[in-house]
Amino acid sequence: MSKKGRKEPRQILFMTALTAIRSNPLIRNIYLEHTEKGMEKMAAIGLCMHKILRIIYGMLKHGKPFDPQIDLNNRQRSIKKKPAGQRDKSRRFQDYDLNAPISRRQNKKRLERKQSHSVNNTKFGINAPAPELVS
Fold this sequence. Notes:
The structure is a single chain. The protein is mainly α. The chain has a domain of 73 residues. The chain is elongated. The model has no long low-confidence stretch (mean pLDDT 82).
């Protein structure tokens, strides 16, 4: 959890989330769903804290009491919208855009990386000659 912000409201929200996990079926279901998927317990409590804040914000914004049925409908709709596939991991290894502006520090890192890949000082590797077989 983030340590930014004021300490007292975060403590109050944490205790509210713990109480809601015990007594509110909606928050309890969210907590149990995520812990069963393998999320850490403290992270799931943080998720519940965030959910409580979103509920409070929605009540203040619309001036209406909280309706759990509307929330369940919104959650079902958002589940349907999510694509079934995973993120494309190959995007992480895309080439650099040579025309994009970069800092001096990043430029230095790229030059060092280029030099370390071009120089092969190892005894074994692609540039090393094949060992001779003695019969």
